[in-house]
Amino acid sequence: MTPLYQNNPIKIYNSLSGEKEILKPINEGHIGMYVCGPTVYSNVHLGNVRTFMSFDVVFRYLKHLGYKVRFVRNITDAGHLENDADQGEDRIAKKARLEQIEPMEVVQRYTVDFHNILNKFNFLPPSIEPTATGHIIEQIEIIKSILEKGLAYVVNGSVYFDVLEYNKTKKYGILSKRNVEDLIHNTRELDGQSDKKNPQDFALWKKAEPQHIMRWPSPWSDGFPGWHLECTAMSTKYLGEQFDIHGGGMDLKFPHHECEIAQAEACNGHAPVNYWMHANMLIMNGKKMAKSTGNYILPNEIFTGDNKNITKSFSASVARFFMLQAHYRSILDFTNSGLLASEKGFNRLMEAVNSLKDIKTDQNSTINIKSWQQKCYEAMNDDFNTPILIAHLFDAVKFINQLKETTESISNEDLNILQQTMHIFINDVLGLENVSEASNDSDKLSGAVELLIRLRQEARANKDFALSDKIRDELAAAGIQLQDGKDGTTFSVN
Ligand SMILES: [Zn+2]
Question: Which CATH class for the 283-433 domain?
């Protein structure tokens, strides 16, 4: 069977060229994709959820087309300096000091929180989720190689990347379209205490101050790696010196991704990534989200409704649907009215999907289902345009209602295509969960428990109390409580 990707060339907006380009994988049928993951020193921000969701959809669609995708998304559990400057304290170490706990406790707590939130939003897990602390040796090796090439220097136990030296043969600023001359003019040292030759140089290795808890031995000092380095180390290790897609939030373009390019070029002599993808930011009520002004919501508060910016709770699928109604390269404005409208739309979509089973087929179709299906693929092939795809799904809602009113007709074959295509795009690609599918599961559970209640009654009637108690106790152990009352036995699920 021909894989779907052969007939579905994807155009990706490449931040490097500033143009949409046809995705041509390095190895046919395979895609290597790296996305910068979270720094686990606080609860995951809704803006980050939006970024990761954009790449979850990219991952899902590439898989649907039959690509074998290796998707690497790291966990930054060391080395992320304050304000992205090269001075200051590691964010994780700072949080640990403030809360008087081990840095690895901070990492553990917020990694669990991150996974919980992503699971609630129905994210697919990445193929590999490596940590910065698990790849210190690889990072040290890259520093050695950059030093050998004369593109870094050591000062007082710290190692810095020499941007000016690098810029003599390569181009620093290639991704963010900045030039080094402007950077020199616009960069001011905050405190003059820096060991750096030039302010635009960045740390590859920092010597740890005596009070710094997270530290590793290296040829230069006991210290810790600079933040930019981990992504170069982990992407190279798991995807190779050159791979297909690198993604992240827009805010990472400079300096983080620019530094990743420079490090990899310096180390390997060629560009690491063919397609750079950047997801735009999320704002709330038209303004930047900020805890201090109250214009702020934690992802979890969407599900509980416990936040003054929303009037009720929303399901994860509704929130997901809402976010995917904006293209990943557009700014997403998170509002209560937007969520309410999405909830209505989502329910209408689900109602239509659930009524597909009641549609009667005819000899011929009066609706061109294949052309509609093609349009769904074209939307996703055009830089993963989820809002256009969703508009096509609503066209299908219109057909389904016309079919129910029998003002249009559909053949059996076309009805199958319609059903399958709706399932593919709603569930597999957009990652939405059908609410009524969940209630079907609870119907099935009720059926199974009712059966066990009847078997227990039979056991009691036969005076087999060992068996009847066993049924009750094992159900209890599985979180299902039986209550015997005068009208029979009922159950509740904990
Ligand atoms: Zn990164």
Answer: mainly alpha
